[in-house]
Amino acid sequence: MPDIAIRTIGVIGAGVMGSEVAQVFAQSGFEVVLVDVTDEALERARKTVERNLRFQRMLGSRRGLAEPPTADRGEVLSRIRFTTDLADVSAADFVVENITEDWDLKRPAYEELDRVCKPHVVFAVNTSCIPITRVGGVTQRPDKIVGAHFMNPVSLKPMVEVIRGFHTSDETVQTMLDLLAEIGKEGVVVADSPGFVSNRVLMLTVNEAAYLVHEHVADATQVDRIFKGCFGHAMGPLETADLIGLDTILLSIEGLYEAFGDSKYRPCPLLKQLVDAGLHGRKSGRGFHVYQ
User: Fold this and answer.
1) Are 206 and 274 members of one domain?
2) FRET pair for 40, CA 20 to 30 Å: which of 19, 46, 54, 209?
3) Is 207 a catalytic residue?
4) Regions of the chain short of the pLDDT cut 70
């Protein structure tokens, strides 16, 4: 891989994760091209970044922390270009994709990215369940495809799960790790397997916790209290599910069920019912818990 400085980051998908990824890179001094299919999605992303930066500033003031020079909302936002034209990502030196966990949506995006991006550009797949090798197989640069499973909220999580696909080169993995270090994060490299490490364990935990509520063993608050009080977790499994989004959780569990064919990944009926009802967690105001 040529020794090319990375100055501009293309971020595909302006949902919760994409917005935070764009924000973190912009705060670290990178220029960002944030792409989504509608102006409405981009406007929501802009408001999300503004809100996050405001909260960070308030939190820093309350703790007596020095405000970093890039924390100014106007300065950070000026580094983010909001666009609905995927061709604009041709200016990027590195791409992070954050599209919904649906292969029918991701595949055409990668085919187009492969066409418009410069040949040396690495594509980082921000996914919890889509195989990295599968993504590489629809591009002409499979050695430059790497998984980067960011955790929510991106700005507060110091670690990223980095996934090596079948064709991913050592240079690509190192580029990913070096870039993460520039934004203050550590990468842990794992092999390409459905769910990788984090979600293969987490989704089983969430699904089993949902079954406990479904079977009236405990309610959602009791389940989460036990995990926080007994194990010292900052959030219980069902609070975590609500934060991620129950629709995303369901897609991940279904992906694991399809990949392994193992009944232990069978999605809980209550989880499916909540998703069908449009109760997706924090982003909709209600999931396993109710939010104001």
Assistant:
1) yes
2) 54
3) no
4) 1-3, 57-71
